[in-house]
Amino acid sequence: MTTKVQVVGIYVRDHEEALEFYVGKLGFEKHTDVKNGEFRWLTVQHPDQPSFQLGLFVPGPPTQDEATAQTLREVLAKGAMPPLVLEVTDCRATCEAMRERGVELTQEPTERYGSVDASFRDPSGNGWKVVETRR
After folding, report:
1. How far apart are CA 109 and CA 132, in angstroms?
2. How many whole angstroms separate alpha carbon 2 and alpha carbon 24?
3. Taking a C-beta distance cutoff of 8 angstroms, is the pair 21, 13 a contact?
4. Over its length of 135 residues, how does the chain's per-residue pLDDT go in tens digits?
5. Do residues 96 and 90 touch, judged by C-beta distance below 8 A?
6. What is the spatial distance between Cα 27 and Cα 109, in angstroms, rounded to a whole number?
7. What is the pTM of this model?
8. Domain 7-132 adopts which CATH fold?
């Protein structure tokens, strides 16, 4: 019987670039960083969610052949992956703090559906929504 989801992975174009963004700009913490041959298992976690990790994976061997990895890199660069969601208590304040750390918003905070949300992309093209907790 399963008890929880521990790691959800996303593709990134470069481990170091992704690590700098997620730790340096979004405030995540590095959790695991190990290599097995050419494969690198790199995860970060939100400081308020210690049992959940976000895996940062570069497409390539041994999980994909080079042709598949190239296709994944192209799709990623186009921003075609589904968005991830960060829940926040104050969307406008969070976005301002992120902007001060160098995060570029792709959508300014907007009121809709009884909340406020905004969007940004990581350096690899992964889309994120910042959604204010409904009161």
Report:
1. 9
2. 33
3. no
4. 888 889 999 999 999 999 999 999 999 999 999 999 889 999 999 999 999 999 999 999 889 999 999 999 999 988 888 899 999 999 999 999 999 999 999 999 999 989 999 999 999 999 999 999 886
5. no
6. 20
7. 0.91
8. 2,3-Dihydroxybiphenyl 1,2-Dioxygenase; domain 1 (3.10.180)
